[in-house]
Design goal:
The protein is α/β, with parallel strands linked by helices and 173 residues long. The chain contains 8 helices and 11 strands. The radius of gyration is 15 Å and the shape is globular.
Amino acid sequence: MVVLAASASGAQGQVTADQIKAAYMFNFAKFIEWPAEALADTASLNFCALGRSAAVDEVDSLVSGKSINNRPIKIRHLGKPEEIKDCHLVFLADSAGKQEQKLFQAAKGLPILLVGESPGFAHAGGTIGFLTENGKVLFEVNISSAEEAHLKISSKLLALARIVSSGIARTGQ
């Protein structure tokens, strides 16, 4: 968690915002507990991306050959929101923002971590949304969205987040 926090603060002058987003996504997956049935049919942890952005390219290079909890990470690029079957984490690039509501509908009730970079993503119903303030990449977590997806988020991750509840944001510790 110290590395995650350092990436969000002091190291930002040395790396790009897209590299920080990629590192965050990799670390988000370490601090999320999926229901057992979500992982039962696959040996891998499937990261999926909808849309193109530099953050997606950074995720591709960062997680290549890596694993979490002995599950190799596989990357899939989606053409449309309805292709999310077997995804554990879906990143919605800002370029695909117009597909946001379709993604929320396709993921309804499924154990999928929805991460987005478009403004207000977490407020709109995504699980985790990125935002930039004073040149720093931060993130918001929508607890209700996580609960609806049957995902458990570590308190360590929540401590670094801005918590979104019922459309109201408050800063975590």
